[in-house]
Design a protein that fits this description.
The chain is an alpha/beta fold. The chain has 19 helices and 22 strands. Strand 9, helix 6 and strand 10 form a beta-alpha-beta unit. The longest helix has 16 residues.
Length: 504
């Protein structure tokens, strides 16, 4: 580790009704990976957006490479050598990989846009990073994990010496995470300073040199990673010790609530059969592309079903669209909460009220304001949504609090089946525990809980029963007691193995 390349002192930032940063200190050295940690809403992203020129600061000083700067614009920050990879993907889906990488920095030859030059340069960068991707491919056709790699390549194409990575692994496969860590080590060796924001604390040991911890918009501490423990880090993040990472409650298994028979929907949902019972949480495990999300979408009526039956409380239900599922009592908290679960430009109140208009309107279709407010206040109170008011736009909430609003709007309906798709993606340790406790509460109330997760410890820690999928099919099922990581992985690759066996 070398010289100090970023020094931020007494940084403060206010938003309407919220003090996001309160006299925060931050320092980054060349050739180091600094983990910036804290709960959702701690102020990490806000601090980094000030460094990258996205936000202006209200107070404090900023030094980059020994030179003091006032408020920066994103372009100025880029010219200095600062690049940020945002948690939320900012890709132009209709443009190619190369066009996205050079957006705003287009290559021009004789006054004409040179696609050939951009593709050539993009191919060189991708090859250097050992990312297997066609620079001419349209970004919207790529899976989310590949789009994330484009974001990383785009940031590195600016020859940045200060790289900010905000939850860079949230959408990556295990192989891609390994590739990312290799890229990070290469950048460290070249003297780059990297700020690494992540809620996946188990990743830190592979790449991190130091940690800076924030809480409620304030600087808490900074230390060498090797001199601390994960328990100490978590205690500093949340201000208390988290006794149980995966809280589990025991309930007596009751009657069958939901049965899915011979469900087929596209090539990713083939002949799916399973049941959900009172008093249990059922986890769906599998590798990326196994068909788990597609199964949830088919049940909820987002995707068209080719065949199959859905039986709720012993009676067949016809679900052609989400409205049918909602009315029947089957609801979904989707994987991409911003795209599919929320209207981020609308307030918390509007987001909770929107799917529940049938409950809060009179027979003439006029909203009963008192009913609406009572419903919203109940959700915010019961789920401990951190907000000064229900009138705050959901886009201004942290990831964990957004997830609570998504779940809360469905719980207001007394639903029978709640489906969670990657419910803890991009949220912090404490907020994860709150989501787990919420699932446990539903379980105790006799509501059927189904959840999809790519994090194996989470599935094993919370689920009472685990169903494993591979290539659009259910390949096995096991209880929590008999589940092992190797057992789940064997089932998650079983279909491929079967194909290999057939070939022999």
């Amino acid at each position: 580790m070398g010289e100090t390349i970023v020094s931020m002192k007494n940084i403060s930032k206010n938003f309407p009704g919220v003090r996001a940063l309160d006299h925060v200190q931050f320092e980054l050295r060349s050739g180091e990976v600094m983990a910036l940690l804290g709960e959702n809403g701690a102020g990490k992203s806000t601090l980094m957006k000030i460094l990258s020129g996205v936000y202006t600061r209200d107070e404090g000083s900023l030094e980059i490479f020994g030179k003091e700067y006032g408020d920066l614009t994103p372009r100025q920050a880029q010219e200095i050598g600062v690049a940020i990879i945002h948690q939320e993907l900012n890709m132009c889906r209709h443009l190619s990989v190369a066009e996205n990488m050079f957006l705003g920095r287009e290559k021009v030859k004789a006054g004409v846009l040179s696609n050939a030059q951009m593709e050539e340069e993009a191919a060189r960068i991708l090859e250097e990073l050992k990312i297997d991707m066609d620079p001419g491919q349209v970004v919207g056709e790529l899976p989310v994990s590949k789009q994330q790699m484009v974001e990383i390549a785009k940031a590195l194409s600016t020859h940045a010496r200060i790289l900010i990575m905000d939850e860079p692994t949230s959408a990556l496969t295990a192989r891609e995470i390994e590739d990312l860590f290799r890229i990070i080590r290469d950048l460290k060796a070249k003297g780059c300073g990297i700020v690494y924001i992540s809620h996946r604390l188990e990743e830190l040991s592979h790449i991190v040199d130091r940690v800076t911890i924030m809480r409620d918009g304030q600087f808490i501490t900074s230390m060498n990673f090797k001199d601390t423990t994960l328990d100490e880090i978590i205690a500093n993040m949340v201000g208390r010790e988290i006794k149980e990472k995966f809280p589990r409650v025991s309930c007596k298994k009751g009657k069958k609530i939901l049965e899915v028979r011979n469900l087929n929907a596209g090539h990713m949902v083939r002949n799916v059969n399973f049941s959900l019972y009172e008093g249990e949480i059922v986890g769906f495990a599998g590798l990326m592309g196994a068909g788990r999300t597609e199964t949830t979408r088919a049940i909820f009526g987002v995707d068209l079903k080719e065949s199959g039956e859905i039986i709720l409380d012993g009676k067949p239900v016809t679900i052609r669209k989400p409205e049918d599922a909602i009315r029947a009592g089957i609801v979904l908290a989707p994987e991409d909460r911003k795209k599919d679960g929320l209207c981020t430009k609308l307030s918390i109140r509007h987001n909770i009220a929107l799917p529940n208009l049938d409950l809060i309107c009179n027979k003439f279709g006029v909203i009963n304001s008192q009913k609406e407010l009572e419903m919203c206040d109940r959700v915010v109170e019961n789920l401990k949504v951190k907000t000064p008011s229900v009138e705050v736009n959901t886009g201004n909430l942290s990831g964990g609090n957004q997830q609570k609003v998504v779940v809360g709007k469905w719980l207001a309906r007394n639903s029978r089946v709640v489906i969670f798709d990657e419910p803890t993606r991009g949220i912090d340790v404490a907020a994860k525990v709150e989501i787990y406790n919420l699932m446990n509460d539903l379980k105790k109330q006799g509501i059927a809980v189904m959840f999809v997760s790519s994090e194996m410890p989470e599935v094993m820690g919370i689920a009472d029963r685990i169903i494993v999928m591979c290539d659009g099919r259910i390949t096995g099922e096991m209880s929590a007691e008999e589940a092992t990581q190797s057992g789940i992985l064997t089932l998650a690759t079983q279909f491929e193995n079967k194909l290999e066996a057939e070939a022999k």
